[in-house]
Amino acid sequence: MEQPVTTAPRPRTIHFTVNGVPQTAIVEPRRSLLDCLRDDLHLHGTHVGCEHGVCGACNVLVDGEVVRSCLMLAVQADGCEIRTVEGLEAGGALSPMQEAFCRYHALQCGYCTPGILITLEGLLRENPQPSDEELIDALSGNLCRCTGYQQILEAARAVIRGETASREVPV
Ligand code: FES
Ligand code: FES
Question: What is the pLDDT of residue 144?
């Protein structure tokens, strides 16, 4: 009996903008955006945690929205604007939230921090004055096992109070 011929889906060329820089990548359709960012573009600030959408370590902004990059296929990012933690600073200046993290000792294990910064950036873009409940709710998508979230909350509250000069992070 004749065997069915199976062929692997062919790699696709995608064009997107990452941290303001136009990029082209050739990716297999099954490749995640997370793997593409880390392995193809060498942006290692976006971390690999659970790889099934639970921990938030892989969060990036896609067209300004917080997205789990382990759950998004790279091909779905074709034509999108991506911002990773490497793109939060501008011209060597940290973003207000990054500055506040330094000032309030909110940098903990470092593995989760990029995803947490992206979550907060996404939240404040959508809602610059979130309530404490909304802030805690947003951070509930980032699992930190090393300690409490106290310093992270203090840093975020300082930015929300306007204690740190605001600066637009480009889309
Ligand atoms: S690695 Fe994507 S949510 Fe955990
Ligand atoms: S900041 Fe990573 S486990 Fe707490």
Answer: 86
Domain boundary among 67, 87, 107: 87
Task: Show the domain range for 156.
Answer: 96-160
φ/ψ of residue 75, rounded to 5: -65, -25
Q: Are 86 and 92 in contact (CB under 8 A)?
A: no
- pTM over the 0.85 mark: yes
- CA atoms 31, 32, 36, 42: torsion sign: negative
Q: How far is the CA of 81 from the centre of ligand 2 (A)?
A: 27
Which residue of 37, 44, 46, 54 sits with most ligand 1 atoms within 8 Å of its CB, as the best mutation to test the pocket? Answer: 54
CATH number at residue 105: 1.10.150.120
112, 168 Cβ separation under 8 angstroms: no
Ranges of the chain with pLDDT below 70:
1, 165-171
Q: Ligand nearest 47 Cα, by number?
A: 1
The answer to whether residues 107 and 136 belong to one domain is yes
Q: Could you report the per-residue pLDDT of 56-84, keeping only the tens digit for each? A: 999 999 999 999 999 999 999 999 999 99
Same structural domain for residues 17 and 81?
yes
